[in-house]
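Quick illustration, no need to memorize.
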Amino acid sequence: MNTLNFAKIFSIAIVLFVFSFLINNYLTFGGNWPGALSINKNINIFSSIQISLYFFALLFPIFLVYFYKKDISLTGIADFFDNTNSYIIRFAFWAVFIIGIVDAIISLLIIEGFIEHFFGKSWNVKLSNNSFRAPYVHFPLLFFALILGYFFKSLNFFWLAFLVVLAEFQIVLLRFVFSYEQTLMSDLVRFWYGGLFLFASYYTLIKDGHVRVDVLYTNFTEKNKAKVNLFGSLILGIPLCLTIFLKGMACKQCVLNQPIMNFETSQSTQGMNIKYLMAGFLIIFALTMLIQFVVYFLRNLEIIKRK
């Protein structure tokens, strides 16, 4: 196996491995499947399916590189992952935009008593409880965001920043002009700002906009800069993202799984019911950053190969 083919296989396999891990995480902790590692104790159809996802993540790249797409280039793989990342971020943007507005409106109607007045106490109780609001309101909106992310491809993070400004403006306007304030108003700001901060991290990496303590890098040749970025992606970037997944989602009570599985909400009874989704922001952050570090690795390897 030559170096370039190994790099192609490694890049595809690491991304597929993470997707396999996320699917297995949902099946194990959300669907009560036995888990991929349970195949050592008790072989059944469910554990076999789960372990096969990891085998697929390893074998498919080998098949792709050596048999199906022998001429696939480093740039071609990087472009595909770039497009994948862009779709994930577009989906995440539409999700936080739509859910933020809808959930804020529902919370406001509950606080002001409109839900109970027009639809009865039972609907007021249901919509106040996240065990109902999450699966029957948030999840359909997430599916709708998947569709919007596919069709609307000219998304820019300026829009999400603009939403944060609007959310802050409505707090100032309502508080100081109309003397009206609710917890949900600041919840909406945090929800959108958290999305902006974490979703835009991969975009900043593309533009090389992250803070870099630069002592020697500026004076390096293009090839040496590529080597620094390549090894930085392999030694620092990708392991960091994998650590977030493995430490945050290794068990049902782990820091990322627990709030999502329990549809966690804030302690305030007058806030939005979106706290569990903000834990999901970290998953989107780790996933998009990992994919972008893989893209970084491939593009810089291409530069080294040309020089």
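The mean pLDDT is 87.
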